[in-house]
Amino acid sequence: MNSNFLIIDCTGKNDCIALIKDNNFFTKKIQSNLIKYEILVLEILEFIEENNIKLDKKISVAVNIGPGSFSGIRIALAAAKGLHISKNINLLSYNNFLLNAVTHLKENKKVISIQKTSKLFYFVEVLNKKQITYSDPQIINANKFDFNNCIVVAPIELNKDKELLSFKIKEIKFVENKLMNINLLRDNNLLENKLIKPLYLS
Hints:
The protein is of the alpha/beta class and about 200 residues long. About 25% of the residues lie in helices and about 30% in strands. The longest helix is centred in the middle third of the chain and has 18 residues, at about 70-85.
């Protein structure tokens, strides 16, 4: 699989497009309130031209499927699929749960990756045994959930969230959403290339 990526993240949190090319990293922020399909495509094309990148089979497009803004994700997916069809390049997807968990998979512990919607906390459980497996997103019931014997990761913006802190998790790591970790997802076969659709949580 390619190690060069065009990354599209329009989940509503620090929306951006990014490039990983020959171990170099380039990024450009996008204003969330301006995201429309036509504008996003123009932004991508300008960004590619500015960085002298050729869209061919040596590069893959990776799109963030969430959780996040449903409309933003749909627009990003439409743009990514357009590039996939018009340029015949690989289309892959990733999600914030796995992106945040991937740096902790070598610690031989279960990793619980948490994300918050406007009302609820969700988690994905990631296990690294003979191969890496992960659950579908589930709602956290703090009264029934066992946070022992695992590593819990959560986005850095939740580090002062009173409700999350009330869960009294012994080992929690607040992490930044680092797009450079796309290559770690690739190395661990955690990029999806089938049935790509938005990861919608209520």
